[in-house]
Amino acid sequence: MGNPVMHFQLCAEDIDAMSAFYRQVFGWRIEPRRLTSEDADVSGTYPAIDAEDGGIAGGITDRIPEKGGVVLVIEVDDIDSTVERVINLGGRMRFPEGPPERMALSGNDADVRFAWLEFEDPEGNLVGIIQR
3-state class of 128 per DSSP? Predict the structure, then answer.
């Protein structure tokens, strides 16, 4: 596979309740991590779901109508060329409206920096792409 799915987001109206649900049902370790944007005046806590036993890491985010229930995030080597292919093949950018947002996620004794954006595929599915 060329570009792997490396993250997922569960969208929730009540993030604390959703975190508790997945902890209790599946025994997932969900820890708050500090999330900040280098491009916008945005920061907060992101409930991160740790990847254990070869699983995919994830998180729980606010539900907004445009996101639906689950967002898959695909890691790419070149976010700009990926955006160009998405647009040329019938997709459209969703967030942010301008260039990819540069973000940092802190926790577990490490900071992860990445560029992030979301697009809609030709069928309307929301997909995230990330470049570390």
Answer: strand
